[in-house]
Amino acid sequence: MTDPLRSWPRLAGTCVLLDGFHALKHAVRFGAEVPVAVTADRQAALALADELAPDVRERLDALLTEVAEETYRALVPRPHPTAVAALAVRPSRRDNLRALERVPRRAPVVVLDQPRNLGNAGAVVRLAAGFGATGVVTTGTLDPWHPTVVRGGAGLHFATVVERLTVEELPRGPLFALDPEGEDIRGVKLPDDAVLAFGSERSGLSAQLRSRTDHLLALPMRPQVSSYNLATSVAMTLYHWSATGGAPAS
Ligand SMILES: C[S@@+](CC[C@H](N)C(=O)[O-])C[C@H]1O[C@@H](n2cnc3c(N)ncnc32)[C@H](O)[C@@H]1O
Is ligand 1 within 6 A of the CB of residue 236? Predict the structure, then answer.
């Protein structure tokens, strides 16, 4: 078996940090390639697997190497309460683009247009995974694979497709952009091949995104409230898609 302490520094530059038991559990469950995984308490980690993830217990048992507490702490920026950390291979851009363009599309793609907040982006990846969305695409400068986004996504980047594109490169499909000035979403059935776009926390939808929009939709909101949080807007929209006939992948 390869020594995790030797391979970690070499892999850390190109791999994605899975921070904590739940991130590792999700990544393994959804097929991530995990070349190295460590824990400061193997017995506790496997007890968690028995309790919460019997489906991947065997794979976690084979993957996890116990290291000293100080060694674990030296490998991660912020120690996690479960004292588990791993590195996973980031899916290739080529495979991601192929998955985003595959037709017929059975579930929407979520587009975050120039998002700013890494925590929001992570929460949206988690939502997309939960609803079985085809993927999450960001435009602008935020890296959707930033460690803080991956932490917020709880390892669920591997359960959907996560990629950064320009507005010109967005996947095909009817573009529904969410904005408080749009038509009430409650009267609209979102098709499975919809591209659902959301604006930035600061300035909403960019002019470039608006110019490509086929339908502008609003979430119900009482007068005098300016807007909802970005991630909660995505949650309501994906819920609306699922409640009007779209179904999370089983
Ligand atoms: C925090 S809001 C942006 C607020 C920003 N100050 C603006 O001018 O629009 C982030 C994004 O969430 C979505 N959103 C928030 N509230 C919404 C609502 N009531 N209806 C539709 N979309 C909404 C929109 O896509 C919006 O661009």
Answer: no
The CATH H-level superfamily of 93-243 is SPOUT methyltransferase, trefoil knot domain (3.40.1280.10)
Domain ranges of the chain: 4-88, 93-243
Question: Is the CB of residue 230 below 6 angstroms from any atom belonging to ligand 1?
Answer: yes
Confidence category of residue 4, pLDDT binned at 50, 70, 90: confident
Residue 228 Cα to ligand 1 middle (Å): 6
Whether 241 lines ligand 1, by a CB cut-off of 6 Å, is no
**pLDDT of 247 strictly over 80:** no
CA atoms within 13 A on the CB side of 35: 17
**Cα 244 to ligand 1 centroid, rounded to whole Å:** 22
Digit-coded pLDDT (tens) for 27-61: 999 999 999 999 999 999 999 999 999 999 999 99
Q: What does R_g of the chain's alpha carbons equal in angstroms? A: 19
The predicted-structure confidence for 181-212, as pLDDT tens digits, reads as follows: 999 999 999 999 999 999 999 999 999 999 99
At the topology level, CATH places domain 4-88 in 60s Ribosomal Protein L30; Chain: A; (3.30.1330)
Angle at 118 between CA 154 and CA 78, to 5 degrees: 60
What is the mean predicted confidence (pLDDT) over 57-82? 95
